[in-house]
Amino acid sequence: MANFKGHIVGGVLVNTGLLAVAKFLPGDILRKTNGILSNWQFIVALYVIAVLFALWPDVDTNSKGQDIFYGIGFVTDIALVLTGRFEAAAYLGLLGMTPIVGHHRGWTHSKIAMLLVPLPIVLVPYLHDATILPTALLVYAASVGGYFSHLLLDGLIFKHFRIKGNRYD
To answer: Which of helix, strand or coil describes residue 117?
Structure first.
């Protein structure tokens, strides 16, 4: 199992790979995102999202990853409230509370959770505006990619692939 630094690096690397793949998608798919992949703020946001989801499965334990995740989440939640985005703030708060529903390395470390936990990132915006789907899918990909990197580094994707160095080994 990787420590929080390993999970951060994993999230960054996987997101870099996803962005490289996205650059090679057919032009008609990328045009639907209104050139969002050339917006540096959006790219930075994708990296932040990937790193947060790379840390998320371990936020149910007292750890440096938990401190980072909730620190960024708290600041983001305040910003959402101050800008009047109460619905987004509520979803972020709900997401932040979900790990305490189970025990460590329980449901948060499952492959199905990797796909389902970030799903509201696509569904909620799509229900409000169907034209946002291509952009929401990029955010979903960063989320799942970060989550995937966590499970990969914890040895839960391939049985014999595990990074040592976490206090939970």
So the answer is: coil
pLDDT tens for the 169 residues of the chain, in order: 678 889 999 999 999 999 988 877 766 556 666 677 888 999 999 999 999 999 988 887 788 878 888 888 899 899 999 999 998 889 888 877 877 777 767 788 889 999 998 998 888 888 888 888 888 889 999 999 999 999 999 888 876 555 555 444 3
The span from the CA of 123 to the CA of 127, in Å, is 6
Residues 6+ apart with CB under 8 A from 105: 154, 168
Token pair 């409000």 is found at 128
What sections of the chain are H helices per DSSP?
4-23, 27-31, 40-55, 64-82, 86-97, 111-116, 120-128, 133-153
Q: CA–CA separation, 2 vs 27, rounded Å?
A: 37
For residue 15, how many C-alpha atoms fall within 13 Å in the half-sphere facing its CB? 28
Give pTM, 2 decimals. 0.79
**Could you tell me the two tokens for 138?**
């990029």
